[in-house]
Structure formats: structure tokens, C-alpha cells
Amino acid sequence: QSVLTQPPSASGTPGQRVTISCSGSSSNIGSNYVYWYQQLPGTAPKLLIYRNNQRPSGVPDRFSGSKSGTSASLAISGLRSEDEADYYCAAWDDSLRGVVFGGGTKLTVL
Amino acid sequence: EVQLVESGGGLVQPGGSLRLSCAASGFTFSSYWMHWVRQAPGKGLVWVSRINSDGSSTSYADSVKGRFTISRDNAKNTLYLQMNSLRAEDTAVYYCARDSEGSGSPTDYWGQGTLVTVSS
Asked: How far apart are CA A106 and CA B113, in angstroms?
């Protein structure tokens, strides 16, 4: 199983706010930045959030990230049908000396 | 514009070898650590390996340690992954990705991926 723990699924209706959690440990989330990715079917992952809460240019401000201790979360407000995708959290792990990912959360827009 | 283009994937028999390449452009390749990440069909993202900017330091996931070798040619702006003793469980799309901070962090830019299928 994945080093970081995410719920396998989440859902919401258009316009709603949904959050996706990501839990880790002191060697990864507890001591390093958290990143979030969005993956649409058949495409490569796209960076959504970096350094816990920073958005790359072009990412709507409907997407926001936060971190507390060894956990983090991604919030999506004003949910839209095009937000239906898989979402992954990631962090550097000091013990592994590499990147660890969450198992991914499939977001369904009802 | 940052571009990463993987190549070299294909069908290989169990126990066989394959070498993946990733051509980088649009940034100073020699200044960034680079990563390989894979995704088995219908599964999540799994980090495979990383290499530092001058190629002197590498690390691997336990699942590939001793079988895969990451390397780079900064003169050619190219990243490689040599995969030996391939197993069915290595079947996946392999992505190369740039370290977002340059040295020791998750990734920002990703290639489109190349599919490796290990089957007899």
C-alpha cells in the first residue's frame, strides 16, 4: 500500500465544496512540503498545489491546500463537472530519500 | 516551455531488459534532479527512482532496487532508465518528471509517459 493515506473516493454536486485528506508521518509530510496532482483519464498528472498551499500559474483559485502536522488536505470549492478526476498527494520522504505518493482519490461530480 | 518526452517502451518478456529515455527541453536540464514515476494499469502513482543534477547520487524504490538503473547525459539533455530482470508487476506507464525545487522534492513537470508491458 501507499506511504501516504488518502480516501479512495470522494463526491460532490456542482457548486459544492469538497475536501480530500492525506495522512503521512514525520519523515514525509511532517517535515516536508505537500504537493497535489490532478490526473484526468488517459493523461499525465498535472501539478495542482505545491509547497502545501501554492498554486502554479493557471490553476484556478477554487483549488486550495493546507497542512497541519503530518496531515494535509486539498479543498475544491465551486465544484464543476470538469473537476472529475483522480487526485494524488505527494511529499519528499527523508528516510526513503525519494518521493512518496498517496494512493489517489477518485472524485466524482454527481 | 518545459517539455519532457519519453520513449523506449514496449512489450518485453519476463526476465528481459528495456531502456527508457526522456528528452528534456525548455529548461536548464543540468540544474535539476529528475525522477521516474510509474503507474500500473488502473492503479496509482508510484515513485521509482531519482537522480541528482550531476548524476553522482541516485535512489530507488525497494521494488526495483538492484534491477533498475537511472542515469543521465547532461550534454544530451536526456534521462535514462535501464530496466533489467523485468517482471509482470513492472507493467506500467513510466513517466519522467522534473524535481520542482531542483533538488529533493516532488515533481512539477511530467512527460506524457511510455507504456512498458512485461508478458510472455
From this structure: 21
- CB < 8 Å from A in window 15-34 of B: none
Asked if B49 reaches chain A (Cβ–Cβ under 8 Å), the answer is yes
Q: Does B3 touch chain A (CB under 8 A)?
A: no
SS3 A51: coil
Distance CA A15, CA A18 (A): 10
The per-residue pLDDT for range A65-110, each reduced to its tens digit, is: 999 999 999 999 999 999 999 999 999 999 999 999 999 999 999 9
Residue A52 exposure: Cα atoms within 13 Å on the Cβ side: 13
Kindly give, in sequence order, each residue whose CB lies less than 8 Å from that of residue B65, ignoring residues fewer than 6 positions away.
Answer: none
Q: Cα-flanking dihedrals φ and ψ of residue B55, to 5°? A: 85, 5
